[in-house]
Write a structure and sequence with these properties.
disordered C terminus, Putative phytochrome sensor protein, 5-stranded antiparallel beta sheet, Beta-Lactamase, about 10% strand, elongated, GAF-like_dom_sf, alpha+beta, GAF
Length: about 475
């Protein structure tokens, strides 16, 4: 029999559970046999180490070592951060359907990421199975991630094999992760849940995930080594005109040949956005098409031609052509930059470069469509990421103020004890209360309530 597997047949046995609890009671009261037959040697040895470390089987939950900004900064710099997509694809994506929690620790047993089934995570918070908590064996007793790190081996811990009684309703499977080149222990990957998590199949899945993670780390190491090789010098890149339209009432155009940026009129701003959007599809626009995209109602094409003529004099014929109207050279836009980051999955960087919506004062149908597409893509990406620091940053945007789904997701992902939780909960409560209130006739009364980042002394700024 494999000594590292908790339930070789994959099924719990009530009589086995009773024997485990009796042996555990005998050990902690120092009245039992030296090595009882019904307890796996790996578990018995872990119990003895836990007892020798002074772990109280009924004592308080493990300590939370890392909180808020300190946790975010630590795990962002951790060697396992770049391979999170692999772990999420192999384990986390199916964790909710399989009723499991997936945890990733550092080499000291501190939980860096805890994801998976939301209901189980809410229950696990009571025993401090949360991000930032330390589950090393010497402070949390026998548990799969802590014992896997202590022994440097994949292991399962079934229910009553846990040393601390509050953890005995859970089962877990964990395996250590090493750097494939240096061999340094980086941490552990753990799956926690009900009795089914102690089956041999789950331990095999965890070990396969570790193998995939270490293979990805090896590939990343080779990429880093290749980048460190000094490349041949490249010719300097030619400067490209840049159009800034995010969070601005009027676009700002930076031309390499100009002495400084130019503030465009709203109509010229709209026309350049529309032509940039057309260029993304390798096409141009007729005056009639631009008229339809600039005006909600009917508009004469001759008016658009006049505006384009003035715009060409401003930006130069080298950038703006005609028949059809089109961009004749590259034009970098902050709108397109955010879209590229979202396409790469770099949600945090996209959010950093998104100060607000595309030309928020514009009512041109083509601009409104581009604005709505980007706003929807960013919102979907932030919600899918389920990262509290991203959700908090997103709530500061004007389009998020009345979005109850965003505030609900933010509240669900914030760790217990986060300073920002009360302010987020209060704002979500106001949104729900406003949704239930009858519609008032006439102008609104009283000042608009402040965003939670302005309330309570700016509790949301930089605090997760």
């Amino acid at each position: 029999m494999n000594p590292w597997v908790a339930l070789p047949d994959g099924l719990p046995d009530p009589s086995h559970t009773r024997r485990l609890r009796a042996a555990h009671e005998a050990l902690v009261t120092r009245s039992g046999p030296t090595v009882p037959d019904q307890v796996r040697a790996v578990v018995w040895d872990s119990w003895r180490r836990s007892l020798g470390s002074g772990v109280d089987p009924d004592g308080k939950a493990p300590p939370v070592d890392l909180l808020d900004d300190e946790l975010l900064a630590y795990r962002a710099a951790h060697p396992l951060a770049p391979v999170l997509p692999v772990i999420r694809r192999l384990l986390v994506e199916d964790a909710e359907a399989d009723r499991m929690i997936v945890a990733i620790t550092d080499a000291d047993g501190r939980m860096l990421w805890v994801e998976g089934d939301r209901q189980l995570r809410a229950r696990a918070e009571a025993m401090h199975f949360v991000e930032g908590a330390r589950w090393a064996e010497e402070v949390a007793g026998t548990n799969a991630p802590g014992t896997a790190l202590a022994l440097d081996h994949a292991v399962q811990i079934y229910g009553s094999e846990h040393y601390r009684r509050p953890v005995q309703p859970w089962s877990c499977s964990a395996a250590p992760v090493h750097h494939p080149v240096t061999g340094v222990l980086l941490g552990a990957i753990d799956v926690t849940g009900g009795d089914h998590v102690a089956s041999p199949q789950v331990l095999t899945l965890v070990r396969a995930t570790v193998a995939a993670v270490e293979a990805e780390l090896r590939w990343l190491h080779r990429e880093d080594a290749a980048r460190r090789v000094t490349p041949a010098p490249r010719p300097p890149a030619r400067p490209v005109p840049r159009l800034e339209v995010l969070g601005r009432d009027r676009a700002r155009l930076v031309l390499p040949s100009a002495s400084g940026p130019a503030e465009l009129s709203l109509r010229h701003s709209e026309l350049l956005v529309l032509l940039a959007e057309a260029a993304a599809g390798s096409g141009g626009r007729t005056a009639e098409q631009l008229a339809a995209e600039c005006h909600a109602g009917d508009a004469a094409a001759v008016t658009v031609r006049a505006e384009l003529s003035r715009l060409r004099r401003l930006v130069g014929a080298s950038l703006l052509g005609s028949r059809p109207y089109r961009l004749t050279g590259p034009l970098e836009t902050d709108l397109d930059q955010v879209r590229r980051l979202l396409a790469r999955g770099a949600v945090g960087q996209a959010l950093e470069r998104y100060p607000g919506a595309v030309l928020p004062r514009s009512s041109a149908p083509g601009v409104v469509a581009a604005r709505d597409r980007l706003t929807a893509s960013l919102r979907q990406a932030v919600l899918a990421a389920r990262r509290p620091e991203l959700l908090l940053r997103y709530t500061r945007l004007p389009e998020a103020q009345g979005d109850a789904a965003v505030w609900q997701a933010c509240l669900e992902t914030l760790p217990p004890g986060a300073p920002s939780r009360p302010a987020v909960a209060a704002h979500l409560h106001r949104l729900r209360r406003a949704a239930r209130a009858p519609v008032q006739q006439g102008p609104p009364q009283g000042p608009r309530p402040p965003h939670p980042s302005q309330a309570q002394g700016g509790a949301l700024d930089g605090a997760v």
